[in-house]
Amino acid sequence: MTLKYPSGKEYRGNKTSIAHLPAADYANRGMTLEDDLNATNEYYRERSIAVIHKKPTPVQIVRVDYPKRSAAVITEAYFRQASTTDYNGVYRGKYIDFEAKETRNKTAFPLKNFHAHQIRHMEQVVAHGGICFAILRFSLLNETYLLDASHLIAWWNEQEAGGRKSIPKQEIERHGHSIPLGYQPRIDYISVVDNVYFSG
């Protein structure tokens, strides 16, 4: 299926089918970062810890093929509007908004994984007093970090001014916060949120 942005540009996200991903085991606790976060958020909601959901992305279906009478296959669709960030909700009376990305790069996180409208959205959330961050996973290293939006925005603006197009891993380690990996919850980012945003 072809997905396109409102501008008509083709979406080139992760096209791997879930059916073809390896099953989770203790060493690889989740199939993808999104799967891990969805399971974590479900854990938080079931225990009344936090109410965080993945934002649905409205899609306009353009073309459908019917290879069989009993089956319909969507072959072309458009995003109705530019997406903002992946997740939002409420924790301890504060609005939380974050983006989740992963990379196979071992030494830096490419800024091309983000879009300008996402960064502008993060700026607005911060300006209105919300908690905003990115969860970044180095998939080959099995390392996950929470990086406050202010640092991501600063690196984005530097790139816009002609600077480097990625955030060095050393900078993420310095300014970000390692998220412990576990079984339940899989990615306990709320414990990091507690330490970063509520400890003072």
UniProtKB/TrEMBL annotation:
Gene3D superfamilies: 3.40.1350.10. It catalyses: Endonucleolytic cleavage at a junction such as a reciprocal single-stranded crossover between two homologous DNA duplexes (Holliday junction). Its cofactor is Mg(2+). SUPFAM superfamilies: Restriction endonuclease-like. InterPro entries: Resolv_RecU, Restrct_endonuc-II-like, tRNA_endonuc-like_dom_sf. Signal peptide: none annotated. Keywords: Cytoplasm, DNA damage, DNA recombination, DNA repair, Endonuclease, Hydrolase, Magnesium, Metal-binding, Nuclease. The record marks 101 as: Transition state stabilizer. It is found in: Cytoplasm. Endonuclease that resolves Holliday junction intermediates in genetic recombination. Cleaves mobile four-strand junctions by introducing symmetrical nicks in paired strands. Promotes annealing of linear ssDNA with homologous dsDNA. Required for DNA repair, homologous recombination and chromosome segregation. This is Holliday junction resolvase RecU. The gene is recU.
